[in-house]
Amino acid sequence: MVTLHARLGPRAAQTARTARARRRVLAIAALCGGLVAGPQAALAQSRPDLPPVVLQALADAQLPVDALAIAALPLEHRGRPWQVQAGRSMVPGSTMKLVTSIVALDRLGPNARGFTELRSAARIEPGGTLAGDLVLKGGGDAELGIPQFWAMLMELREQGVMHIAGNLVVDRTLWRPARLDVGIPPFDEAPEFPYNVIPDALQLAGALLPIEFRSDADGRLAARSVPALAGLQFDASAVKPSAVTTAGTTACSDWDDDWQPARVQRTAAGGTVIALQGAFPRGCIVRAELQLLDRAELTERLFRTLWAQLGGRFEGRVLEADSAPPADTRVLVRRTSRPWGELLRHLNKASDNAYTRILYQALGVPAMAANPGATTAELADRAVREWLQQKGISADGLVTDNGSGLSRKERIAPQTLAEMLRAAWRGPHRHDLLMSLPTAGVDGTMRNRLKSGPATGWARLKTGTLRNAVGLAGVVNDAQGRPWAVSMMVNHEQHASRGRAVLDAVVDAMARGVPGEWAGPDDAMTVGPMGVGP
In what order do the strands lie in the sheet with 285-290? Predict the structure, then answer.
């Protein structure tokens, strides 16, 4: 088939494409009636850089064109970049996780691991007594769950330790400050849910309390921690049965629809009572993990419970280290997490904020000794900016906070993020990054988007969602099967959530054509890489 480009030559072909695109925009404007009337129709006539389907999606969403910014860069051919407000500093949502992922893969490497240690300077006396303090040291281990902690304590018992004569000293000082969460106001009205956890270097159980909720047919609710922790009680007397909906009773999976923040109170005897609030569906058994206890209390209660279950004795106190314990402690038990090259799959596909924050802090750890006055997060920001400078990428408009996108502060230009993706594509860890990204219509946060079309199963895209922002960034193949690094964002104070359909339209248009070269309705369009076409 002879292409239009070959028949007319580059300049004439581009002129023809532009004319056809303008005619198509005018036709869509006429069809859209009120949605594209007046100023919107006039704007459509002047935006041949946007495909008509995207203008239609913006009109359907009642979003202004200037809410959308796009940067698309060819990765393996000499195509012309597609840029729409690409240099504008935007709220990225969780597409910011790509910044952390890309820099960490390059600076730390995919084999970097977190760790957790049990240490002591005391000797183990005959009879199994550790004659001094036991130090629980956090090393940014994102996978330190209750089973992993139990296994560490079991290994300590296997070394012959039965009685800990001193205290348990909890060392979170790998990061500065050790407790990032202290004094920080809640991000939103649901601080107890996992996405809002602000991690520390000892992320035991994810700082979350595992709970089993069980309600009977009449809606009476009982709750317990798993495992049962001594001194912890639940009061569910104020919880009401969920209202019956028109479709029947509330589904168990929607148990949190009527959740209200629990009240947590310490008792005079040193216990804790968690008073549950709101409503809960009838006849349901639900396992959940919630941030209801301060992590210092959670660590203590978990340690005392698990150590006692293993037959150990401990009468000491659980103390939080103000500074790193003495260097003469030796390692008794050490566990390492899986390498970050593997953890990225969960981090990006599930958009895990806590994992990302841990990895972001890890970027700052190597420079801490040489910069005693700086926080770890400040040093992580410096590491990101040094990486950008090394790659020749502008940091204009970049604002970092915690590296996860769950922030009111973080900003980045789509152009910057697209250039970072291009640099990663050219680097040695391309496949580690691509493996971690949600696949359109298949898995992760993209499993229910773009489920049919040429991008399905091919586009690898990190999503982002905040109240005032949505985004997509990753790699999309065009109609000729050529990969593009793409970063796109919609920012709007009232209706940003409507922008998901707009971003999906952008991806679909890219997969059905060539970015920036939008064909008219009378053109034959190339079948996409999966054999699917218009």
Answer: 221-225, 209-215, 285-290
| Domain spans in the chain, listed from the N-terminal domain onward | 52-109+346-512, 115-336
CATH architecture of 52-109+346-512: 3-Layer(aba) Sandwich (3.40)
Q: What is the mean pLDDT of residues 240-251?
A: 75
In tens, the pLDDT along 448-475 reads 999 999 999 999 999 999 999 999 999 9
pTM over 0.70: yes
DSSP, collapsed to helix, strand or coil, labels residue 9 as coil
pLDDT level of residue 291 (50, 70, 90 thresholds): very high
Structure tokens at 411: 């900003």
Strand partners, 264: 274
End-to-end, the C-alpha distance of the chain in Å comes to 18
Question: In Å, what is the CA distance from 513 to each residue of 57, 68, 357, 385, 517?
Answer: 17, 20, 37, 35, 7
Q: Write down the pLDDT at residue 327.
A: 79
In whole angstroms, what is the distance from residue 496 CA to residue 248 CA? 32
Is residue 29 pLDDT above 60, yes or no?
no
Strand pairing partners for 266?
272
**Helices of type H across 120-175:** 146-158
Where do runs of H (alpha helix) occur along 219-339?
295-309
What are the tens digits of pLDDT across the range 77-112?
Answer: 999 999 999 999 999 999 999 999 999 999 999 999
Euclidean distance between CA atoms 369 and 510, whole angstroms: 47
Residue 229: C-alpha distances to residues 181, 251, 271, 282 (Å): 24, 29, 10, 26
CA-CA distances (angstroms) from residue 123 to 116, 157, 332, 518? 20, 14, 11, 74
